[in-house]
Structures are given as structure tokens and as C-alpha cells.
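Service request form, structural biology core

Requester: graduate student, group of Dr. S.
Request type: structure prediction, single chain
Budget code: on file
Notes: please return the result as C-alpha cells.

Sequence provided:
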Amino acid sequence: MTSVWSQLEPLLTNVQKPARYIGCEGGAKAKSPEQGLISWCFTYPDTYEVGLPNQGLQILYEIINERADARADRSYAPWVDLEERMRENDIPLFSVEHHTPVHEFDVLAFNLSAELTYTNMVNCIDLAGIPIRTADRSVDDTLVIVGGHCTYNPEPIADFVDVVALGDGEEIVGAITDVLVAWEADPGETRQELLRRLAQVEAVYVPSLYEARFEDGHLQQIAPRFGDVPAVVEKATIADLAEWPYPKEQLVPLTEVVHDRLNVEVFRGCTRGCRFCQAGMITRPVRERPADQVRTMVADGLERTGYDEVSLTSLSTADFSDIQPTVTGIMDDGEDAGCGPVSVSLPSLRVDAFGVGIAAQLQKAKRTGLTFAPEAGTWRMRQIINKLIREEDLYEAVDAAYSQGWSRVKLYFLIGLPSETDEDTLGIAELAKNCVALGKKHNKRASVTVSVGGFVPKPFTPFQWFGQNTSQELQRKIDLLKDATRKMRGVNLKWHDPKASLVEGICSRGDRRLGDVIEHVWRNGGTFQEWSERFELDRWIEAMDACGLDVDYFAHRHRKEDEPQSWDHLSAGLHKDFLWQDWQDALAEVGLEDCRWTPCYDCGACTGYGIEHVVASAKPPAGGSQGTGQDLASGAAVPVTLLPKKNRVRV
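Core staff response, request fulfilled:
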């Protein structure tokens, strides 16, 4: 393998943040590019400071580098200033470990967590010197693989990728590597034969081996073209998180990055059942990491990295069993090891699982930010989206934070949800005002930052049938909130661009016809579309028009129960009739309690693990409504019958 460093180094004095491109991080493997090893280049399709903290890529990077027959490097999307100079000087996309051209690797693997990175993915493929469309690649071209939450509907990018890895990647990357090792030992096979081999791997989807059939402008079916290709591809699920204590050596950058702290995943999955939340649906069932392992990973990580802050990550960290003693133990371990005060950050906090006890523990060290996500401004809307938290829950959590010394909290909401009225939207401002009033009792400088995002329907959620609000309607609702909060002292309003939400919606539930749209936007300079200074809706509207596609058809219309969806040939483990019934329950304003503490709803997620439903423990998570549910008509607390831990058989 070669290196482009001698050509690249002179260019770095004239670009922003040259440290993005030099590597040399603590924890980097830099495994020697020996002959015969299957080589992966894990790539995040955004800048280094955004992509380096991504835990998914770091985990897979370590797993591959632990193998004797494989190696892995990393790459990131170069910012526009360096890309321009790279193209002028014929420098291809490179890895940061060895500055090896990416086209010399066997695999170029992307993590796709946001639809607006699709054009960056295409740009990276082109910058690497690889044909952007899989149909144009030869047996010698690098294999392009994608994974991540966006790949639960990969059809908009099907023309650009060779392989889609669906679900948890820890075992998939090993299985793919095994196939590549065997293929390298049998040099006579074509690229098509390799793809046929890969299609036999569990949770691997090869788009080129499937045909999308349309009739009168409507998708009818996506079906395999060959008899040995599975009709439905099931996601991969790691059953026991304790068996995968990764990353063992988190990367420590030489320059500033987002989320610059130690990150330890405490559990994967969520069964709270928020109907808008794709992550909560597709990552079921819940799998907790043992508390002792969490503390060990934190202690080892702090000692090795030198960080004094750790984030315990999950979709709802306060739901982790015995979260309070775990936080206490982590802080005590830091003191005992002479590391000084350790700050613990709990992202994704639910307000009904946050109390004075947790707040008191967190305030012992440097106070990290506190973000709560009520998601909707009224109890009616929270029943519809199944975010079953009362105003009292929010006020208790916020009061607990302010009472322990915080002066600022952030509240996250969605607008454009199904059946939302202006009264529901304005309820956001009312909640914020009341939270500031609570804070003023403890601190005259108390403030609340309200962050508002436009709702985008996602595949494999109960809301996948909902017609998204137009960007104009989302902007009108933002203007309502701006007017309502303008004179509220201590309330700061921020919002996501509704025009960007529109494009996310088009790509989220789109089909293969969008491949031409994505290429059109890319060829017209549309990269880094997640960056507000680079995003232009006109590029996307022009591309849709040029390809003869209708924005309303893809984003704004409601969908019927029996309408074929572009992800029907993939499975997130959820029964489709469960999702439809949950959609009907939403329209009827009926909520469902978390199935970790109640009987099974038969969503399908636990099927295949020798059990049908796991009741996590005999007690619900720490916080305001332990041991109680809510009467969905009145909001009053009612007892919940907790089931003992046992197996259930589905008949």
C-alpha cells in the first residue's frame, strides 16, 4: 500500500484545522498494512470533529484490528477547502492512520446516521477514485458497505452501495471478513459471485441482487432476482452486551471534537415506545451491560485517556438498573484512583426518571449540561406520541436540577406531530415559562433553552404512515413560538431549519428513484448538507423536478396500511401489525406503558432469543413514577403490576 502524505503535507498549511488529517490519536491502532490482510477503511461522511467520537465506527475498528487476518484504518470527509486542493493535485481520499488511498482498501465502510450525509457519502466514494454507482464497478474496485440507522431504508442510496449491514455490526463485520478471506483465496470469481456469497450472510442486504418494480409511478415490490437470495433480510442483534466490552481503547484526539469525553454504553435498545423514535424501535430488545463492567470500563478508560468526564450512553440512561449507585461508584472509583473529581454526564434523560438523588450525585463534580426531552407541549400530544410524562414529572425534574445548583437546562421538543394543534404548539412555551419560574426560586439567573425540531416520519415506527408537515407549516409553528416566548425572560428559543427537515423526510421514506436526485444534488455542489451554511433547499427541489419526482408524494401524503413500503423486504424484528395498531392507538390518543415493567405487547423484538418477552427487573427505573403508571384519561398515578422475570412462550 502507498501513502499520499508527501503530497498532502504541503497543503495542510493553507486549510482550516489541519489536525483533522494527521491521525496520531491516543488509542489509534495503526496496524501495519501487511500483504494478505483483508483491509477495511471505516469512514464517517462528515468532518473529523463530528465523526471521530462515533462509537459505532470505533467499536468495529477495534474488532477488525484484533483479527490476525484483517486490519482497519479510518477516514473522514475532508472539508471543502482541502477537497478543492486534493482534486487540483490528484490526491485521492486517504486514511488518517497511514494516509493510504482509500481505493487500495478491500472495503470502504460508512456509518450513516443522518439522511443529509448521503451526498457526502457519494462525494467520498468519488474522491476515493471509485465509480460512484455499483453497476460500474469491476472486480478490482473497493467494496462499498454501509451501516447505521439510515440503512433501515437504504433504497435511496441503493445504486451507490454494494452491501448494507442491517442492525448491530459487531458480528456482521466478522462474518463479512470471513467471506472476503475465502474469496481472496479463490481468485477466479467475479464481483457478482462475491456479492452472491455476501448475500448469504445473516443481516447482509445486497441491493443489486433485488429488483424494484414500479407501476404507474408507485412502488409495487422489491424482490430478489435469484432463488438463493433471501426474500426478507433480518437485522442482526447482539444478545449479550457483556460479551462486547468495546471500545476498549477509545480514541483520544489531538484537536477539539464534539463530545470530547469518555463514552461508555450502558445499555442498548429502548422499550419506552415513543412512536416517533426510530432508534427506540429498531434497537429493541433492551440489553443492559452489567453494572460492574460499566464501572470497570469507566475506570480503565479514565486512567488511559486522562479524561475527567464520562458520558454513560444509551437511549434513556436513567432507565439503567441501579443508575444512582452506579454513578456514585464511578465517582468513588475516580477519587480512590487519584483521578480527582469525575464528572458524569447522563444524556437522554427522561424527566420521570430524574430526581434529587441523581442530581445531588452529578453536582459533586463539574456540572455537565442537563437536557430533558418532553417532546410535546401538552399531555394530549404526549399520549399520542406515547411519551407518557406529566407536567408534574417535568417540573419535579427541573426543580431537582435547579435545587442542586444548575442554572440552565435544555428542553427538546418536536413540532409537526400527528394531529398537533396550535394549542399543543403553544404548550411548549407555557412549559418553558413555568420551568424558568421554578428555577428563579433557586437562582435568579435561571434560564431554559428550548430546542425545537420538525418531526420527520421514519421507517419501522408507528408514524411511518403519517404525512409530514410542509416546511411552510413548520415555519408557521416556529413563528408562533417566537412570538409567544419573545417577552419571556430566561427562555431562549432555538430551532432546526424546516427546509432541512423536508429533505430528511423525502430521503427517509423514499425509494430507488431518489438515487438520481442525490447524484444531481451532489454534482451541483450539494455536499455537507447538515451544515446550515452549506444547505440549499433549491438544489433539492431542482433535482426532484429534473428527475420528474413530486415532493408531496414522497414527504407530505398519508400512506395506507396495505401500501408497499420501500423497506418491506427488510426486517427490524417488529411485527408490521403491531406498528399499525400502535398507529391506530396514537390516533385514538391511547398510550402504552413500557413493556419492561408490564406484560408483553407482542411487538416481535424478543422473538428468536429463546424467549418472547423480557421483564427487566422487579422494579422500574429510578425516578418520579416508580411503581406507578398513569390513567391515560386523567393523568393520575395508578399502580402497575410488575411481572417476575420469566420466559414466555408465544403460541
